[in-house]
Amino acid sequence: MAAELDALRDQIDEVDKQMVELLARRLALVEQVGEVKSEHGLPIYVPDREASMLASRRREAEKQGVPPQLIEDILRRTMRESYASEKDSGFKCLNPELRSVVVVGGNGQLGRVFCRMFSLSGYEVKVLGSQDWQKADEMLKDAGLVVVTVPIHLTQGVIEQLGRLPKDCILCDLTSIKSQPLNTMLKAHTGPVVGLHPMFGPDVSSLAKQVIVYCDGRGEEYYQWLLEQFKIWGASLCHIDASEHDHGMTLIQALRHFTSFAYGLHLSKEGPNLDTLLQLSSPIYRLELAMVGRLFAQDPNLYGDIILSSQENIDMIKRFHQRFGEALQLLDNHDKDQFVMQFEQVSDWFGDYSKQFMSESQNLLKQANDAIHRSG
């Protein structure tokens, strides 16, 4: 039996070696694709091409008796690596006549991401850090684009401190709230203004499929090239009114961050053994625990700024607290019938999204489970 298994394993090892060689060949071809895209100004992420290719490979897999989801999982992981490789080829510069790009706060994590992307696109990039304000007038007097990426609580003050910019200079910010910074930019600068919110962190390997929200300020026709440049980087754009954006962020960011903070705080006070919790957790619970723990691996000042950035956030969290108390009342009353009724009401509110989210989460959980190594 051992000899038979060894022979089969040797064959598997040989197939795996061939797979590695094929992946290396594919990545080399992707690098060539990136060079062509860079030359012609094509985006690194083309949704229709990706969807068509995956559908075709799924059909081919079925004919070979290979589970279609298996080949899709492999290709999606490979494409993620491919997008990162294409980035290294650089990008076409859509506005070669643009004067310098000044990134205020460019030494920060997100600032460095945008400095690199602009540099890869051939723009002259200057960084205005907290220690450089004595050189600010000199750096800003001939700027074609000024990007403000500093902590939320400093953003408005920094914008007001910029002084007079060239009239045709584009002024934008990367803050996760939009109404207040946008209004401050409109008051501080008479030229083109746009509010931006990159919906990703500084640890992304590529901007492919990443979302950048933009809120119009003034002179939309003058910054269209900038939005197109983002698309070439692979980003998807979301156009929204600033106040609508901020209301959405109250639920997406402030409330979620606060509930994660409260759950983590509760866990720390209860003092369970995390190793034991992980051993007992199925992939869904492990993933939920990971998302809470992830928060506490980051800068508390950032999350404090996000949560405390508006009274609307605090009011929303208070309403959540009130509804949490109402839900607790069901437990105090041991009222299962009322619990089921409210559960079904919420299910009706989610509608078809419930099934969509179930499908999406199942795929995430499979990947999470694959990454777990359990001994014994």
From TrEMBL:
Residues 1-90 form the Chorismate mutase domain. Gene3D superfamilies: 6-phosphogluconate dehydrogenase C-terminal like domain (1.10.3660.10), Chorismate mutase (1.20.59.10), NAD(P)-binding Rossmann-like Domain (3.40.50.720). It catalyses: chorismate = prephenate; prephenate + NAD(+) = 3-(4-hydroxyphenyl)pyruvate + CO2 + NADH. SMART domains: CM_2 (SM00830). One of its GO terms (molecular function) is prephenate dehydrogenase (NAD+) activity. Keywords: Amino-acid biosynthesis, Aromatic amino acid biosynthesis, Cytoplasm, Isomerase, Multifunctional enzyme, NAD, Oxidoreductase, Tyrosine biosynthesis. SUPFAM superfamilies: 6-phosphogluconate dehydrogenase C-terminal domain-like (SSF48179), Chorismate mutase II (SSF48600), NAD(P)-binding Rossmann-fold domains (SSF51735). In the C-terminal section; belongs to the prephenate/arogenate dehydrogenase family. PANTHER family: PREPHENATE DEHYDROGENASE, PREPHENATE DEHYDROGENASE [NADP(+)]. This is T-protein. It comes from Vibrio gelatinilyticus. The gene is tyrA.
